[in-house]
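Most newcomers find our protein records easier to grasp once they have seen one. The structure tokens are whole numbers drawn from a learned vocabulary of backbone shapes. The record below serves as our worked example for the rest of this section.
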Amino acid sequence: MVRREVNPPADGWSLTLPAGLWADLSRHLFTDGAGHGAVILAEHVRGPRGPRLLGRRLILAGDGVDYVEGTTGHHALRAEFVRDAAVLARDEGLAYLAVHNHYGTTTVGFSIVDLSSHERGYPALRQITRQLVGAVVFTSQAAAGDLWLPDGTRTTLAEVVVPDNNVLRLQPRPAEPAARDPEYDRQSRLFGDRGQETLRQLHVAVVGLGGVGSVVVELLARLGVGHLVLIDADHAARTNLPRLIAARHDDVGRPKTSLAARNARQANPDVMLTLIQQEVQTPRARDALAYCDWIFLAADTDAARHWVNEAVHQHLIPATQIGVKIPVDADGTLGQIHAVTRPITPDGGCLWCNELIDATELAIDMLPDAERERARYVAGVPAPSVIALNTLAAAEAVNHFMLAVTNLHHDDTGQAAVLHRPRSRDRDLQNPRRNPLCPTCSRCRQRT
């Protein structure tokens, strides 16, 4: 495998494309070495480093039909194709982005002819749509954008992000080399200096700070992740101590967010922390998830699964669900232990499609505390939980994350879950199921 240098996140406007949309667009643009065109309609939201555009619709321009020889340039989108796409953008309140490809690999920019075309057409198009309009030019490894904002100003696109097995960050040119931090010298020899800088710039949430989540926080902090968002409403109990990393006996009764924050700061004094001692379904926690680059789901409630799954598909943020199950029958018979690490990506791994959210339990989880207890009728029996098994799942999840964000996975695509069965020493991959009618994740798959 030829090593590809990763681009650290760039400040400014970004465009995020679900993996399936990017795959369809790549096949259209890069299959035969010729020029091709398309339109992307995108939702405008806020993000951790600037405004984000989220690709919602891809409209491919037919060669010779919708993408034709232009009067001043090599090719152009036909006027009727532009009109229909612009009306759709206006009606759905989405940004309109015309797309074409250039020759090249890691560097790309608009030609003088391209920019002249934008100046002739986009002021009028902006008036028609009353939305952001603009253009993006791609090579297979780079992207540049020219954005015309509704307030009359104009700006550039900093990067296009594709969250998949590797998180691609396509920028107009390769990022400048990053300075090496001596403290991270050994792991920079794997990630590269740009990879280490990528980790420093990331915002990562951990939902659930118990036996699995506390290990995840420790690993992320020691990797040098720059900003951690720690979400958990619980306090440490005496029965938690054997599984909470670095917990002390005088920590009983303290918020789990405080214990996780203490460990993170001991591992990395420069880490920025956002502590949310609330359930993930609260507005503050949900808002915080929307500003992250990655989410670790280490809580086992149906509400946590639902709201993290929702953040993935609404905001196009990749996540990883982590869990360990130790089944014991009523007569004490031990079943097959399994530890699972499941990627949840925009366009793949939806927890509703994979029947991992129980609608009835979700409804109970969303009740106020007192009503929730009455709704359950019988108090639950605590499930077995062991730190070594939790650590197995946490390490698998963090390894997948660090290789994805530094572009070190062998394949750019792939959303299979990893299932460990420690009793039989098996390790399997499970591809996610997909329901084409799923109202949650189908919003990532709109192609025309």
Remarks:
- The chain is about 30% helix and 25% strand.
- The chain has two domains: 14-170, 182-430.
- The first strand starts at residue 13 and ends at 16.
